[in-house]
Amino acid sequence: MDGVRRHIGAAERRARLALRQRLSGPARAATPEQVAESLVALHGTDPATVYLAVGARLVDAGKTVAEVERALYEDRTLVRMHGMRHTVFVFPTELAAVVHASTGLANAAKARAGLIKNMVTGSDGRLTQEWLTEVEASALAALARRGQATVTELTRDEPRLKEQFVYGAGKSYEASQTVSSRLMRVLGVEGRVVRGRPLGAWTSSQFRWAVAPPHPELPPAEAQPELLRHWLMACGPATEADLKWWTGWKVTDVRRALTAIGAVPVTLVEGGATAYVTADDEEPVAPPAEPWAALLPGLDPTAMGWQERDWYLAPQLRPALFDRSGNVGPTVWWNGRVVGGWAQRPDGEVVWRLLETEGLGGEERAAIETEAARLTSWLGDNRVTPRFRTPLERELSD
Predict the structure, then answer these.
(1) pTM above 0.90, yes or no
(2) How far apart are CA 376 and CA 292, in angstroms?
(3) Which of 54, 224, 277, 347 could be cross-linked to 102 through a Cys-Cys bond (beta carbons 3.0 to 4.6 Å apart)?
(4) Phi, psi at 343, each rounded to 5°
(5) What are phi and psi of 353, to 5 degrees?
């Protein structure tokens, strides 16, 4: 490129988003595996998000629940596990080792050290590190025998999991914590257990646990570039700030991984705003043949994919669409930008409201209404309330 950086403007970024995030009609996927591979990670903190995010991108949305459950619990081609920023995601199973080595190892060491410190201090030394080692070995053996189990079921096999300790003694947030709740989270971050089938419907947040399937142990220096390469192919161009936020890594790790994959710098704003794409992703991307509409759920990986979001989400829309912790609620998209929000009413109807109306006439509104009707149809008798509720979602759902 003779030292001249290619410029990728907002219009091309929206075109990339439409195609690579499988949001325009012709780009929709046939299976949940294709969706997960395209997005790298599906947010799993709210169980319903996984299904809604997949359904928005499938050719046949009516098969969403059955197909996601097949992939997660029968074929095991998708796995729900802790990943970036201590968050639960659903990943393609072949990425489990990469995610664990690139982000999980450092998080796991901190999580275990914190548990041991809190447990020993909060029990006046009654519960020790040696005691915990014995209890967790017993719990994992019980889990292996059962195949899948809730924490309640595991405590029947290993009653010591019910032991409690005081967290934050003397502080305003002082509380009693149970060994089981903290230990299972630590084991999850360590990649030793994963979430299994939920209790009840697919919207349930009460999960069984299962022993994690075996995967190779990769060096972090090998895994981090690999994860970054996957993500840039899905979401590039991205700035260092985007990459640091999404991965939860130190900026030095981000820069080392960018160098390792030979990432190419581009500009997002004339004269500045450096971002990166992979070395084989410099060619211009044409927009979809037809404009498109989408209704995406709270915490959708597209809406949450970048830290710097002004190119697809106008700042004035954020107060209505985000909660106080920065979690996005259900969003309405038109042709690569967020233009409003949606909610499901108690009677099952999906309703929506535009917050940005420039360029949105009758034809565009009809396309959005078609997507709302599509979503209403496949939800059927299911009722979905986002785990993290936002001002507009609350207002619309009343």
Answers:
(1) yes
(2) 18
(3) 224
(4) -155, 165
(5) -145, 135
Neighbours of 274 (CB within 10 A): 13
Upstream peptide bond of 216 is cis (omega within 30 degrees of 0): no
Strand partners, 178: 164
Say if CB 208 and CB 148 are below 8 A apart: yes
Burial class of residue 201 in the structure, from the number of CB atoms within 10 Å of its CB (0-12 exposed, 13-18 middle, 19+ buried): exposed
Measured at the CA of 362, the angle between CA 360 and CA 368, to 5 degrees, comes to 70
Going from N- to C-terminal start, the domains of the chain cover 1-41+220-398, 95-211
Nearest to 194 by CA among 179, 211, 206: 211
Q: 111-155 pLDDT, tens per residue? A: 999 999 999 999 999 999 999 999 999 999 999 999 999 999 999
State yes or no: pLDDT of 2 exceeds 50: no
Contact call for residues 227 and 103 (beta carbons, < 8 A): yes
Instruction: State how far the Cα of 196 lies from the Cα of 151, in Å rounded to an integer.
Output: 12
Closest to 111 measured CA to CA, from 48, 55, 187: 187
3: left (phi over 0), alpha (psi -120 to 50) or beta: left
CA dihedral (240, 241, 245, 246) positive or negative: negative
